[in-house]
DNA sequence: ATGCCTCACGAGGTGAGA
């Protein structure tokens, strides 16, 4: 299975480019973030013509997540248990939920397309929302892997955290002043790893960014950040056969400010085993 | 050219992004 994640920054603004990529790169499952539309505005036809089924989750022009898959998906969920909401500075499980998580099972893998809250600025109510959201996610992962330690679980998406100093090349993002690089955010990311998730791309692609701001020549100057990740449980990590960050997708006409991150998973099951069995 | 920000909403700026 070839699994990809991409913050597309509006599906309607660049659906051709996204479907072309998925077809050209033989993507089986594409998790998208920031589709920036309601479900009834999603261009399902464009994906279906290319052989994909799509699950989409969006309430408005903000946020929005989707999963396109060549095979049918099951167990679709539009939030993980305990996910907090946000409204006018108020956060918690009693606040309205935003469209930031979509879970589905495909090919035996529980995949979540995640758009972690931005945080806006240190000390902003949105910043505390971000930390609460990440803590609820960690609790879900801990509980799930405690009861099903061998579950192939993949958390993919825009985590809005640069986990190490090497993951931030944007001079406007400064330690002590900016979101994405603050100690509590990095601790929240590390806590996901402590809960049993592994960054399955970094071992194969040790450097490189996944996002460059549109402003001030950030891409030509390569002043980006690595904030988009594919995190997998041990069953996923053990199946990794390849990985790539498609930097070229930041070039050309009307790109997203993020690029796709891709991983090849080989579970060696009967589905993709067309070799003769020799005993 | 990879080039000084883009998108949605809606009809003038505003909010959000990271």
Helix content: 10-25%
CATH class: Alpha Beta
What's the shape? globular
The largest β sheet comes out as: 6 strands, mixed
Task: Strand order, main sheet: write it out.
Answer: 3-4-2-1-14-13
What is the level-2 CATH architecture name?
4-Layer Sandwich
**Total strand segments:** 14
Instruction: Outline the low-pLDDT stretches.
Output: none
Order of helices and strands: EHEHEEEEEEEHEHEEHEE
Helix- and strand-based class?
alpha+beta
Compute the number of structural domains: 1
Number of helices: 5
What is the terminal-to-terminal distance? Answer: 26 Å
Cofactor: Mn(2+); Mg(2+)
Protein name: Exodeoxyribonuclease III
GO molecular function, one term: double-stranded DNA 3'-5' DNA exonuclease activity
Organism: Microbacterium salsuginis
How would you characterize the overall build of this protein?
It comes from Microbacterium salsuginis. Residues 4-258 form the Endonuclease/exonuclease/phosphatase domain. Belongs to the DNA repair enzymes AP/ExoA family. Helix content is 20%, strand content 24%. It has 279 residues and is α+β, with helices and mostly antiparallel strands. It has a single domain, classed as 4-Layer Sandwich (Deoxyribonuclease I, Chain A). The strands form 3 sheets. Strands 3-4-2-1-14-13 form a 6-stranded mixed beta sheet. It has a 6-stranded mixed beta sheet with strand order 5-8-9-10-12-11. A hairpin with a 2-residue loop joins strand 6 and strand 7. The radius of gyration is 18 Å and the shape is globular. 43% of the residues are buried. The structure holds one DNA strand of 18 nucleotides.
């Amino acid at each position: 299975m070839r699994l990809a994640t991409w913050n597309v920054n509006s599906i309607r603004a660049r659906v051709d480019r996204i479907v072309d990529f998925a077809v050209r790169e033989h993507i089986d499952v594409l998790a998208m973030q920031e589709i920036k539309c309601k479900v009834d505005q999603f261009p399902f036809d464009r994906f279906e013509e290319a052989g994909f089924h799509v699950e989409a989750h969006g309430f408005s022009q903000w946020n929005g997540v989707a999963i396109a898959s060549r095979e049918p998906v099951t167990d679709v969920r539009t939030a993980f248990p305990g996910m907090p909401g946000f409204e006018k500075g108020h956060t918690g499980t009693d606040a309205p939920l935003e469209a930031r998580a979509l879970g589905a099972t495909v090919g035996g893998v529980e995949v979540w397309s995640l758009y972690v809250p931005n945080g806006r600025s240190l000390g902003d109510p949105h910043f505390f929302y971000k930390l609460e959201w990440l803590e609820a996610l960690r609790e879900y992962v801990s509980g799930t892997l405690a009861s099903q330690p061998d579950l192939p679980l993949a958390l993919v998406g825009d985590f809005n955290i640069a986990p190490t100093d090497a993951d931030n090349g944007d001079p406007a993002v400064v330690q002590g002043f900016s979101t994405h690089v603050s100690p509590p955010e990095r601790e929240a990311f590390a806590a996901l790893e402590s809960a049993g998730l592994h960054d399955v791309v970094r071992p194969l692609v040790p450097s490189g960014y996944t996002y460059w701001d549109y402003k001030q020549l950030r891409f030509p100057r390569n002043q980006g950040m690595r904030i988009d990740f594919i995190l997998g449980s041990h069953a996923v990590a053990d199946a990794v056969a390849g990985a790539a960050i498609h930097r070229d997708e930041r070039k050309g006409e009307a790109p997203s400010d993020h690029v796709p991150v891709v991983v090849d998973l080989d579970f060696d099951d009967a589905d993709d085993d067309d070799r003769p069995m020799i005993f």
